[in-house]
Design brief:
single chain; 2 helices; alpha+beta; Nuclear Transport Factor 2, Chain: A; five-stranded antiparallel sheet; 116 residues
Length: 116
């Protein structure tokens, strides 16, 4: 019986030691970093014609409020803020004026009357 208990203690201690010495495998950050620059304001008149034509065609009634350009992955991207009434949307275009995505729309918060 002593031998059985002794073997159990040895096995348990081996398991405990093994559990304490295992190393965590962590994902190391990649060595290639995407180079992003800070947004640079762009005059609406300086936007490529393809972008302004796209806004006029696909977002009829919207006006271009603001625009900025930034470098990401060695390519220029344009962020164009368009407004119509009280709604605002941000559109992303590449350097050739190709529409990439819509970042989101901001609609005014609905105001309800407070109950007294």
């Amino acid at each position: 019986m002593k031998k059985v208990i002794f073997i159990m203690v040895l096995l348990m201690s081996a398991l405990v030691i093994n559990a304490q010495t295992t190393t965590k495998t962590t994902k190391s950050p990649s060595t290639t970093k995407t180079a992003k620059t800070a947004p640079t304001p762009v005059n609406v008149a300086d936007l490529p014609k393809t972008i302004t034509d796209n806004v006029e065609k696909d977002y009829a009634g919207y006006t271009i409020k603001d625009a900025s350009s930034m470098m990401a992955n060695n390519a220029t991207m344009y962020h164009v803020v368009v407004t119509k009434g009280s709604s605002t949307e941000t559109l992303v275009y590449d350097s050739n004026g190709k529409f990439l995505k819509k970042l989101g729309s901001k609609a005014p918060a609905h105001k309800t009357a407070k109950k007294k």
